[in-house]
Each structure stands twice: as structure tokens, then as C-alpha cells.
Specification:
The protein is mainly alpha-helical. 63% of the residues lie in helices and 5% in strands. The chain is built from 31 helices and 10 strands. It has a 5-stranded antiparallel sheet with strand order 1-2-3-5-4, with helices on both faces. α13 (346-361) runs antiparallel to α14 (396-413), α15 packs across α17 (459-470) and α25 runs antiparallel to α29. The N and C termini lie far apart (62 Å).
Length: 813
């Protein structure tokens, strides 16, 4: 009777968590805030409209009036109605949420008024649009912004059906605002972005619940699967997006219950993606829903059990009546985390290795080896728990990562010597030698790394013990060059000479360029500088796609920023290559494979660049031969917008640099001998790298990896083109996005092929020539090129040096 009553109450679940559920500040709110602010910045650049896109989309949307203006009035009113519903729901023991809603609404209102004012909309007009649906259209759609803020702020607190209703209301309301003429599409989009930003700020201030189910609901869910359970309690195991419970069945046998909650906020797309990229470097299961994930784990568990691998026996798997997905296993023993050190025997350690090796013999990598996934049974045997992250048909690298993590896990449970001895006893010296390259902090997850840092031994101690037991020499990491005063001065001299040569060939003096720079609108240049770090955000996805070994996103992003630092202070291919090889070695990737990853990443960028050039050329989009819509607000060259007479001279600079480099190589004996002696080394290195490259090239068999590389490179090219447009806008001129992409892509491709450190001089000449080709005056073109290189090449080493220090401190270099 009591169980039936719980079912009735649970069948209409409004909130995702208990009233007293804890709140945490989630990193994904920072991601949402960053994306929303980026969207606001981009939209404000185009505001207040209408742009050509606005006009076209508005005509399409307003054609929907044929369904009746009253319907869109209702749709617009739904925004306020749903907010009122949310306010009323707080009376159900959730009065504290009123503060969240009010703060979110206040932040959204202030941000909307500020953004609208920056785009030229009077505050009085913005306030009018908050209470009225009548034209004229304003930027930002204030009602959309404020109501979106409240609805998004409420999302983590609500059950999934109510979240979906809220999202639908927001979408309908935004479309209705455009149909009724109270906002243009650009204003409605900005309203959505402002609302999301305000909600993210609110979550960062107050925190948000995780949507974890309570024990009573889990008991009812188990009954749905035919298991009458009691003593249901939360397990002492933390897994992102998953709730773990212990229970006892009708025969009083212990159970371990894994619940993928319907309302779990950590299971949402953005949160799970961030967790996968940041914490474990695994590919997020974007397509896999709750049922697919428990089914995957059930299949892996049954395969392992059939092959004789000791795992927790599967009891039940399925979905409860309210949508939670459950996987129930028989828990017979104690997690290794709860076993005292003095009770862990060498037999247990060796048995742990045997079970992992047996699992890998099936081609299955566990994917999440640590002490919380190893169970010591009462009779002293060992079982593997939780195959939710298991990968069937795993590659060698994934299997070796499992072994490295197991070696570290057992060393934490006992000590380095006992762990190494157990490994050598099961996998032998050769097997232990294979694990050595992966004994790096980068291979471990964050909790394990913290345990190593807090322990009595270091990872170097474990590596030394493993080297001795394997009877091999320790693998040497590639040495990095240090930044010296000589290298910095050389870079400055190259830059000064390059700019002097460009101005001489373009026929423009420094005084004219300085006057042009002084007249620039610095707000646009600051916007370009703020957008600049996002280029590496895109590049990082391409690098991750080029690697068959799972990489964590944050360290890869820091690597990209560090490359910007190296590219300026140590402008040589060898320095950048050494940095990349050292980084990938920390993930257990051999030097040859690391070189191949870089080459594959670069080649995918080359493919994207060529594709963009061809697409823009044959599609009829504005290009070099298209007319330019500019202004004459610049302090210099204001009488002409088509002065391109110096363009051939600037183009000649690039050719001159190529010829100069070839002549210096042939004439100077030092350079000539260096090239001559390097050729045999390059040939021998190519042979050594060929074998390692074969495994790297297997990424080409994975469409998702190829897509990741192409999308990452495409995103970086587009962002750089937008930055170029912002720099051009600072001097009073505009160009079509296709023209900007064409110029940036051509310069990136051309500069990358030139043997010039950092592309100094070549890139500036290329940007100048490209801008002149679309009708930008010489002085403005050179000034824009300088600004572009300043925000994308000369200033990024400021945060690149900080990224380099972080990589060193975190032992990624």
C-alpha cells in the first residue's frame, strides 16, 4: 500500500531534487556564460539591424501571421504566464527559489538595457518593449531576455518534462516577438543570449542541484524492475551524471544500483560533454541516452562474465515507469577504497591484474580503472565493477592506459614496490616495459593524480621501480629549449625589418600609419582582442580529433596557447615540434606518433583552407573582384577607397622573402652544411616514425574524428576572419564575411608554406595585399594588418606564457 502511494506521488514529479538537496557551482555554467557573452558581442556588432539576413528571415517568419495574429499574441504572453507558473510552484516548499528568480530577472534586465543602449536603443524604448508587444522593433527583446533568464535559472530545479515545456515556451515566445514586430530576429536572438547569460551568472552565485533521485524513488524504481528492495541508501561512490545506491533484496543479499536519472542535470548534453573533455579525455556519449548506456554496460558485463572474467553479476537492467534507467548488480564484497592497507595481500594485487588482462583479451578496455571499481570479495578474490565506460574493440593505446592506471591504483592502495612486483608477476617484464611510457600524470584522472600528490611516493618513484623491474632503460623525454634574451631580440629585429620593408614596398610612411592607428576606434580592437583566444578553442578540437589516444580538452587548449608563446619567443619549427612531442609523450604517445598527429592536424587544416578557397571562388560569394562597401571616416586616405596601386609591390615582398631564404641557404656555408647534414637524419627519422604513424592514421577510419578535425579547423578560420573584420571596422571600413574568410585563408595558407619564423612579414604583407585587392586604401590596409597581427600573434603570448607555466606546473611538459 505504501509502495503504491509512492508510485502515485512519484508519477507527478515537479522538481528534480529534494528540497534540501545540496547545490554546487558547475563549470558548465561558465561555459554557457562564455558562449552567451560571445553571442551577445557578435550580435551587438551587427545591431540594431535590420541586416539582409534579418529582413529575409523576418519576412519568412511574419508570413506565419496567416495562422492568426491572436495565436502569436498568446505565444508572446506565454512567456509571462510560464514565469508566473514557476513562481507559484515555489510555494511547494521551494520559497528559496524566489531569490534565484528575482536575481536572474534583475541581471537580465540590466544586461538587456545595457546591451540595447550600446547598440543605440534608448532605455525608454527598451522598457516599453518589456510590457508591450507592439512595434517598433527594438534591440534587445527585453521580455524575451528577462523571462528566458527566469526559465533557464529554474531548469536544474525542475523535472525534465517541465524543462522541456520551458524551452518550448522560450522558443515560441521568441518567434512570436518577431511575428508581432516587437523585435527583429537579431534582437530576439540577443534576448535569448542575455537570458542564458543571466541564468548562468545566477547559478554561479547560488549553485544548482544535480537532480539526483532520492532513496524512496529508487526503491519504487527497483520494484518496477521486479526487485523488492529495502535499506536503500546512497553509496559512497561519486560518478558524474550517475547516482549510485546500495540496497538489499528480499533474500537480504546486497545490491549495487546504478541510476541514470531522468532529471539528472549532470547527464545533460553540455554538462556531460564538459565532464568528458575536462576530466577523463573520453569522447562524450552525445547520442547515447539513458537506456543505451545501461544496455551498453549490461552487454559488456555479460560478455566478460561469459568469458570467465570476475565481475559483479548482473541482476537486472531496464527503465522505471518514470523514465530513470537502472542497472542492478550483486555486490558481494568491499570496494578496494575501503580495505585497510595492511589487509591487502599480494594475491589480491596479482588477481586484479589477471582480471584486467582477461578483460583485455576480449578486446575490452575498462576505461575507468581505480580503487572505486575494484571489489575485494569476502573469500579474498577480486572482481571488476562498473563497466559503464568500457570500450569494446578497444585499440592498444586504450588497453595500455588501463594497465597504467591499474599500476598506479594498486600502488596507492599499497606501495610502489608491491604494485610493480604484482604487475611483473602477471604481465612479465615485456608487458611492464610497454606500460612505462604511460606512467605520466596526464594519463591519470584528477582524483587519482591528487591521491598520488598526497601520497608518500611520487610518480617518478613508481616509474623508477617499474624500470628496474622491467630491466630496461628509462624512456627519455625530449628536451625543450629555454627562452633567452637573444631569441627575444632576434624576434624583435625580424619584426622591425619586416614592417620597414612592407612600408617601403607599399609606399606608405610610418607617420601615416601611426596617424591611422591613432584614429582607430579602440572599442572594435578590444573586441577583436577578446575574441582572439577563441581561435585556439577551435584549434584544440582539431588536435584532439587527430589523436587516437583520448586527450583532455583543457590541457590541449593550454598547449595551443603555449604554441602561440613559442611561435613568438622561439620562432622555429623545431621549438614548436619539441613542445608538441613533449606534451604528447606525457600521454604515453611515442615521438613518432606525436609528429604524425601534428602532421595530420596540419593536413586537415590545409584541406579546410583549400576547400574554403574553392568554395568561395566557385559559389559566387563576394571575393577579391567584388565591390566594397566602405566608409571614409579614416583620418588618412579619406579621399580614396580604391587605391590599390601598391598591391603588386606588397605581393612582391613574399616572393622576395622566398628567394632571399633560398639564396642565404645556398651562399652561406653554415646554412648549406646544416641542410646537407640534416637530410640523412630526416631520412632516418622518417623510417622510425613510419611505424608509429600507422596507428595514428587509424583515426581516418573514424568519421567522428575526421569531422572533429575539419570542424575545428573550419571554426578557427571563420573566427580569424571575424577578427579581421573587427580590425577593419576599427578603421571605418567593412567587408563581406566571404571576403574576410578568403583573405585570412589565403594568408594562412601562404604564410604556412613560407620558411619565415612565425610568418613575420609574410602574413602582414598578405593581409595588406588582400585588403587592397578588395578596395581598401593602402594606409588602412597596412594598419588593419598590423592590428590583426597584434591581436592574433604579438599579444596572445601574454596568456600563452601563463598557459606554459600551467602546463609545467601540472607536469604536462
Amino acid at each position: 500500500m505504501q509502495l503504491n502511494a509512492r508510485r502515485m506521488v512519484r508519477g507527478f514529479r515537479v522538481f528534480s531534487s529534494a528540497a534540501d538537496a545540496g547545490r554546487v557551482r558547475r563549470p558548465t555554467d561558465i561555459v554557457l556564460l562564455g558562449l552567451a557573452l560571445f553571442g551577445i558581442a557578435v550580435l551587438t556588432v551587427m545591431a540594431p539591424g535590420p541586416s539582409a539576413f534579418d529582413t529575409a528571415l523576418t519576412s519568412v517568419i511574419q508570413s506565419l501571421r496567416v495562422f492568426g495574429g491572436w495565436m502569436w499574441q498568446i505565444g508572446y504572453a506565454l512567456l509571462a504566464i510560464w514565469v508566473l507558473v514557476l513562481l507559484l510552484l515555489t510555494l511547494i516548499r521551494r520559497v528559496r527559489l524566489l531569490v534565484d528568480y528575482l536575481v536572474a530577472a534583475a541581471i537580465a534586465l540590466g544586461l538587456a538595457l545595457l546591451t540595447g543602449w550600446a547598440a543605440g536603443t534608448p532605455v525608454s524604448e527598451s522598457m516599453r518593449s518589456l510590457v508591450s508587444a507592439d512595434p517598433p522593433a527594438v534591440y534587445v527583446a527585453v521580455r524575451v531576455a528577462v523571462t528566458t533568464a527566469v526559465i533557464v535559472a529554474a531548469s536544474p530545479h525542475l523535472a525534465r518534462p517541465f524543462r522541456y515545456i520551458g524551452r518550448a515556451v522560450v522558443l515560441i515566445g521568441a518567434i512570436s516577438a518577431v511575428v508581432l514586430g516587437s523585435s527583429l530576429p537579431i534582437g530576439a536572438a540577443a534576448g535569448l543570449a542575455v537570458g542564458v547569460a543571466a541564468a548562468a551568472i545566477t547559478h554561479l552565485i547560488f549553485g544548482s542541484p544535480g537532480g539526483r533521485p532520492i532513496s524512496a524513488n529508487v526503491a519504487v524504481a527497483l520494484a518496477d524492475l521486479g526487485i523488492e528492495a529495502h535499506d536503500v541508501a546512497e553509496a559512497n561512490v561519486e560518478l558524474s551524471g550517475v547516482a549510485m545506491f546500495t540496497a538489499r533484496d528480499s533474500a537480504d543479499q546486497p545490491l549495487l544500483v546504478k541510476v541514470y536519472g531522468r532529471d539528472a542535470w549532470d547527464g545533460q548534453l553540455i554538462t556531460s560533454t564538459w565532464t568528458a573533455l575536462q576530466n577523463k579525455g573520453q569522447t562524450p556519449r552525445i547520442r547515447a541516452g539513458r537506456t543505451e548506456r545501461v544496455d551498453h554496460e549490461a552487454v559488456a558485463t555479460l560478455m566478460a562474465e561469459r568469458a570467465g572474467v570476475s565481475v559483479l553479476p548482473l541482476v537486472a537492467v531496464g527503465r522505471s515507469s518514470d523514465g530513470d534507467a537502472l542497472l542492478v548488480t550483486r555486490l558481494s564484497g568491499t570496494f578496494l577504497t575501503d580495505v585497510p592497507h595492511d589487509q591487502i595481500t599480494d594475491t589480491m594485487l596479482q588477481e586484479s591484474w589477471r582480471q584486467v588482462v582477461a578483460l583485455q583479451a576480449l578486446g575490452i578496455s575498462h576505461g575507468d580503472i581505480d580503487a572505486a571499481h575494484i571489489v575485494v570479495r569476502d573469500e579474498g578474490t577480486v572482481a571488476l565493477a562498473d563497466l559503464g565506460a568500457a570500450s569494446m574493440g578497444a585499440g592498444r593505446s586504450a588497453l595500455m592506459v588501463d594497465r597504467a592506471r591499474l599500476l598506479v591504483t594498486l600502488a596507492i592502495a599499497t606501495d610502489a614496490e608491491r604494485s610493480v612486483a604484482a604487475a611483473a608477476a602477471v604481465i612479465g617484464q615485456d608487458g611492464l616495459a610497454e606500460v612505462l611510457p604511460l606512467l605520466q600524470p596526464a594519463v591519470l584522472d584528477r582524483p587519482t593524480r591528487k591521491q598520488v600528490d598526497d601520497g608518500e611516493w611520487s610518480l617518478d618513484d613508481l616509474r623508477t621501480a617499474a624500470v628496474a623491474a622491467a630491466g630496461v632503460e628509462a624512456p627519455e623525454l625530449i628536451q625543450l629549449r629555454r627562452v633567452t634574451l637573444k631569441s627575444v631580440l632576434l624576434t624583435v629585429l625580424i619584426a622591425v625589418f619586416a614592417y620597414w620593408l612592407i612600408t617601403q614596398l607599399a609606399g606608405v610612411d610610418f607617420q601615416s600609419i601611426w596617424a591611422e592607428l591613432a584614429s582607430a576606434d579602440w572599442a572594435w580592437l578590444i573586441a577583436a582582442l577578446l575574441l582572439s583566444p577563441f581561435v585556439q578553442v577551435a584549434y584544440s578540437f582539431s588536435t584532439m580529433g587527430a589523436s587516437i589516444v583520448p586527450l583532455r580538452y583543457w590541457p590541449v587548449l593550454m598547449l595551443q596557447y603555449s604554441i602561440q608563446f613559442i611561435a613568438l619567443v622561439l620562432p622555429s619549427t623545431a621549438a614548436r615540434l619539441a613542445l608538441e612531442i613533449r606534451f604528447f609523450e606525457k600521454f604515453g604517445i611515442a615521438g613518432g606518433a606525436a609528429v604524425s598527429i601534428g602532421m595530420l592536424d596540419s593536413f586537415s587544416g590545409f584541406v579546410v583552407q583549400i576547400a574554403l578557397l574553392i568554395l568561395i571562388t566557385i559559389s559566387g560569394l563576394p571575393g577579391f573582384t567584388s565591390s566594397l562597401t566602405g566608409s571614409t571616416t579614416s583620418s588618412t586616405d579619406s579621399t580614396s577607397t580604391t587605391d590599390t596601386s601598391s598591391s603588386p609591390n606588397v605581393l612582391a615582398l613574399a616572393i622576395a622573402l622566398i628567394v632571399l631564404g633560398a639564396i642565404l641557404t645556398l651562399v652561406i656555408p653554415k646554412f648549406r652544411n646544416r641542410v646537407r647534414t640534416a637530410i640523412p637524419r630526416w631520412r632516418e627519422a622518417a623510417k622510425k616514425h613510419a611505424e608509429a604513424a600507422r596507428e595514428v592514421l587509424t583515426v581516418l577510419r573514424h568519421p567522428a574524428k575526421v569531422g572533429q578535425m575539419l570542424v575545428g579547423n573550419l571554426g578557427s578560420q571563420v573566427i580569424q576572419a571575424i577578427i579581421l573584420g573587427l580590425c577593419l571596422k576599427a578603421f571605418g571600413y567593412e567587408a563581406a564575411l566571404s571576403q574576410l574568410i578568403l583573405i585570412n585563408t589565403a594568408v594562412s595558407l601562404f604564410a604556412g608554406l613560407m620558411p619565415v619564423p612565425g610568418g613575420m612579414g609574410v602574413a602582414e604583407a598578405g593581409f595588406t595585399a588582400g585588403l587592397q585587392a578588395i578596395g581598401i586604401p593602402s594606409t588602412v590596409a597596412i594598419s588593419t594588418a598590423i592590428a590583426m597581427r597584434l591581436v592574433t600573434f604579438y599579444l596572445p603570448p601574454i596568456w600563452g606564457s601563463a598557459a606554459m607555466r600551467w602546463l609545467r606546473k601540472s607536469d604536462y611538459l
